[in-house]
Amino acid sequence: MSIVYGKIAISLACTILVLLFLLRKKQLSAWLNQKSPAGILTLGWICFRLLPFVAIYLLANFETTSDVNGFWDEASKASMGQIVYRDFWSPYSPLYAYFIGIWLKLWYHPKMIVLVMAVMDGIALLASWHFFRPFQTRGQFLFKSLIYLVLPGSLILCIIGAQEDVWMWLFVILAYLVRERTLKVVLYALVLAFGLLLTKAIFVLILVPLFILEKEKIQLLVPMLAVGIVTLAILYPLVGWEFTQPMDEAQTLRAPNIPAILNPVFNNNIGVGQKFWNWIGLLSSVGLGLLTAWRLRKSDFRIMLSRVWVVLYATMMIVQQSAYSNYIFLFLIPLVFFIIDWNSRKQVFLILLFNILCVVHPSYWWRLGMPCYLSLNDIVSSAELFIDYIMQSTIVLLTGYFIWLAFPKASRL
């Protein structure tokens, strides 16, 4: 449980730092309004990404754990020219392992993967400045950037967990920024297609509302189909149907999610583990995302995308039986920069609690042996299991609250 205690300690330190920033919000925002965004973001990245990396992995010489070792298995083999899905298993899109493998040419070590994640997180934050700046002053954005960089959900999941989920947000806003500057739908489509090939299969979910709202549907669809056909033409002769490996992730039972917390209440009679739960999760998350997009169809694209992104992927996090709380890293940027009212004490308290629980629970749950509760008796059979179930339930409830915050209310449209 040492990793759990370590995450708790870091989370509390991060929380205290966030609260100190909030106490000086007005003064900090005014000061930051006079500074260069690139300079402040670079300094913030050095302080809260590079220095923690150096302290943990170089000075303290801690070894990488958890998902990083899985990424290492993929990326190291990809860097040696092996074929994804055939020579090594991967739950990610076909280019993911090769992208990380390129970085391993600079430093052939698992710790390099953590540094890659930190760099990509910094790029996502910089791109977000260009995405959000029409709606926020420089001082407001840079203040929220500092908050984001020190939140437990971003710092721990990036530097200790080495999660890549923020990449999906990066590619969808890069696609928009390319279209905004070039006015070419084809380039917009190609960046989206490249994002899908480089991240996860779940990236395709956001393409549904984007396609529905797109006026130039043919120009969007044809380039993406062309990229897909070329990709399959290369992959199928090499690996056959093994390119469907990322879909296997949907069968993996994790927690917390709605099926996991409901299962003991119904004495294991709701069919947890069966495929129909995957369809329920898919339809509910995409359905809510589509409804959000449709309600905001006349709004600015950036407003629509921010809310749709949080609603869609936060819903997926609690309805998909293979989802777990690390997915907070997927939608944390739009949640921090656009959804949360940092003047509301209630929202500040809940987002901080949400961050702490989301980073602590995966390690706690894993070290308990990944329990799956079959009855109410299982929950109260030990104090450790009871704490785990309470954490799961709280995460699901808080996720639901933030979905409600992000969902456009009819009275406000």
TrEMBL record:
Identify the keywords attached in UniProt to this record, alphabetized. Answer: Membrane, Transmembrane, Transmembrane helix
Q: Which residues cross the membrane?
A: 6-24, 36-60, 112-132, 141-162, 185-213, 220-239, 276-294, 324-342, 349-366, 386-407
Q: What name goes with this protein?
A: DUF2029 domain-containing protein
Source species: Dyadobacter helix
Taxonomic lineage is:
Bacteria, Pseudomonadati, Bacteroidota, Cytophagia, Cytophagales
